[in-house]
Amino acid sequence: MKVIKVKNYDELSKVAADIIADLLKENPKATLGLATGSSPIGLYQNLIKKYEKGEISFKDVKTYNLDEYCELPKSHPESYYSFMHRNLFSHVDIKEENVHIPCSEGSDLEKLCKEYNDLLHKASIDLQLLGIGANGHIGFNEPNTSFEQETFVVKLTEKTRKDNQRFFNSLDEVPTHAMTMGIKNIMQAKKILLVASGANKQDAVKKLLSGEVTESFPASVLNNHPDVTVIVDEEAAKLLND
Ligand code: F6R
Does the Cβ of 101 fall within 6 Å of ligand 1? Predict the structure, then answer.
């Protein structure tokens, strides 16, 4: 696992965007696995700037998002569909048909999971971007999810719902379930880029980099992947010994 330590969120966002931009320059038809949440917003802003300067294009890029809330219509401002369009897709030249976000609107969630999983089996993700939950979740794979798990509907833990409450008016409004790529899908990406910023990620970063692999801490599976880069800022890296 390669660890890049940076000063703060701004630098993390620049370094992460450079890694993705370099990949797109080398392979303009790359397939990206994308994440939502606070961690990638700055890096998406940097990618938009690079697009505006003509340094990169998304014309032939395909994307697959990690997860989506159940119970929220796509049009809800906090759906991950809205998030991705607001923070990246509406500002670049990506084709809507190349955007894939799990669809969890509908009564037959099992069928929708299978459809997304089948798409992932056909796709070959060149780079998967990840944030990390304070409890070690990646995507919405909560502690004790099997490392063999593929796309599924997950009941969110109270911790994760509380962490995400800041995007809603109250805890009651935070969805209770989400559809997420499983850990097995995430591990199939050729490269993984994980970004962690801020003091509330200190414990998670320390556990991730301890090297211990356990299903009780989902992100620890990344220690078994051959090509992972972790970018951490000073706050998130505070508990690491240099
Ligand atoms: C988002 C996702 C989640 C987040 C994680 C960290 O698509 O899959 O695993 O990456 O919850 O969220 P932030 O970045 O908001 O701290």
Answer: no
- pTM of the prediction? 0.96
CATH code matching the domain that covers 2-233, chosen among 3.40.50.1360, 3.40.50.150, 3.40.50.720, 2.40.128.280? 3.40.50.1360
Specify burial of residue 145 (Cβ count, 10 A radius: 0-12, 13-18, 19+).
buried
Q: Which tens digits make up the pLDDT trace of 199-232? A: 999 999 999 999 999 999 999 999 999 999 999 9
Could you tell me if the CB of 36 is within 6 A of ligand 1? yes
**Which 8-state DSSP code applies to residue 110?**
H
Q: Which of 209, 213, 218, 194 is nearest to 146 (CA)?
A: 218
Closest ligand 1 atom, CA of 160?
11
